[in-house]
Write a structure and sequence with these properties.
It is built from 16 helices and 7 strands. The chain is mainly α and 330 residues long. It is globular.
Amino acid sequence: METAVKQVNEGLYRTEAKIYPRDVKGRYASLRRLSMLVLLGIFYIGPFLRWDGRQAVLFDLPARKFHIFSMTLWPQDFLLLALLLIIAGVSLFFFTALAGRIWCGFACPQTVWTEAFVWIERAFEGDRMKRMKLDRAPWNFNKIWRKTGKQVAWIALALFTGFCFVGYFTPVGELYTQITTGTIGGWATFWVLFYGFATDGNAGFMREQVCKYMCPYARFQSAMFDKDTLIVTYDQARGEPRGGRSRKNPGAAKGLGDCTDSTLCVQVCPTGIDIRNGLQNECIACAACVDACNVVMDKMGYERGLIRYTTEHALEGRTTKVLRPRMFMY
């Protein structure tokens, strides 16, 4: 009885193993990086844009008006803002039913900032194996300067993120002057530090834990999925039974499926799952496993698409229906 209780407690309270996502090149990796650059560029450049002699995007709460380029919204116009938020929410449902968690994989702020923080981490510590080796190594000058440099870069980016965030509510020129002259108010200081701390914590430390345990989207997405929803999935009929083989010894693959069991699809996954186990709520549909698998298929001379974007109906050899009742409802 005590042994069973101990095993349950270990399962519930054990420390989560750190995930070291491997870098990958491919169509979807390039699309994720492009999305990161565009979205972060919009966020960071937004407060510095000028329009008609004023800040182009400014949510002036004390004056109760929002400036968005040539448009100015007053309190009586907030109904339009609420309507816009409702449309955005329903659109998320629509695109989820159509294309799965494409928002999570390419446009979610958690994904975008995590991609940026991981890029900084790779710049200081190297790719997957080097980072794992560095974490296991004793503390020496090499480990100290790499870890310290990474943290300094993370904190700098996080604080600049907090500065830009507050810059949407306080004219960014005034905010800069207040910081440099030491006259910044308590609330502005709080929000710069709070948003910077949240960015550093979410993208630098918690990362996949936010997607796996904190984000409610992963929990209720199944209510919007059906067998015609586009998902990232593994073709079991083609891949199994899996096993290692060599291009120089094709006979070793006799009786095996196309999966070489290289586990690259697991190594590149930012949430640490094995897509070959089927659809899981931790999957953010980033398609890193698709790129990794295609690299292996190219090396082996096999057809691409063992892991791919497809639908359950397509896997079963049936026709995928884009126009269906839930799509019209959304």
